[in-house]
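Message: Just now I want nothing more than another pair of eyes on a protein record. I am handing you a single protein, as its sequence and its fold in token form. As I understand it, each token names a local backbone shape. Take your time, and here it is.
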Amino acid sequence: MVEQAEIRVVHQGGSKITFREPVISSDSRFLLCASGHNVKVFSTATEACVQELRGHTDLVTGVLLRPSNHLQVYSCSADGTVRLWDFTDGILIKTYVIGYPICSIYASASHDGVVFIVMPTQRDKRSDVFQLVAVHLPQCADQLVETTEVSAVLGDVSSNPVAVAFGRSGEYLASAKGLQLEIYFFKKQKSYRFFLKEDHKNGSRNTFTCVACHPKDDCVATGHEDGKIRLWRNLNHKKEYTYSTLHWHHSAVSSLCFTPEGTNLLSGGVESVLVQWRYGQESQRDFLPRLGAAITNIAVSPDGALFCTSHSDN
């Protein structure tokens, strides 16, 4: 008789590379994509996969450049850890144990040593209520670190990464869910909420789908289910806020992204067209059509030289 041994999966290939928004390195030489349990690093010059960052034991749910070191990235996963990598050499530097499945990760230059993550309010993976928390990353020599300093920032946020964005180098953050837009100002430690009606008589569907913040101005762009884009201003004065509406997409806006200088806003959806709106002169638009499949994510390199679009056909 042959003894039945437990089968253990050592490596799994063929995962999607468009599951989460990709990241372009500061020098525009590398493109980093979450792919199954790993992070794949591609050369933008040759398109070859030059590194595969392996260590997570469950789905990687976000990749993020470390603001204080352009050669390092954070990755987060449903395995409840945040990992710090040197992505050019493929070296795992640190593993931070959070203990909850993580949906997405954010950081800003003005919050040194802190990452922001979206996770369930309960440890249960099936929980459908999510919160945004600040995690202080301990400075120590250990490679495996338990994080103990975690503070809640916003409750009841969307688990979709494109529904949260940081504005003005981390002065405030915007969170969109359903028909509500919430803006949280860190200095005041105060949040303002703005609501839209479900639909109008003309058949528009106002549900929020994605959000992006202008890098320099107090302006928040939101995408909606009916293809409209709203530009919100004066959000730190709850009664005096204004918004203007842009409309080209015929169906839901799936991704919005400002260029690093804030001169343009990029949008995409099921039309397979990348739309570039001139900020301040939104009637001027440029189109990159026939991209092959619906756009799911848009990323821009830190120097603004490269745009990257992810598509529903991987």
The mean pLDDT is 92. The chain is about 0% helix and 50% strand. The radius of gyration is 20 Å. The first strand starts at residue 23 and ends at 24.
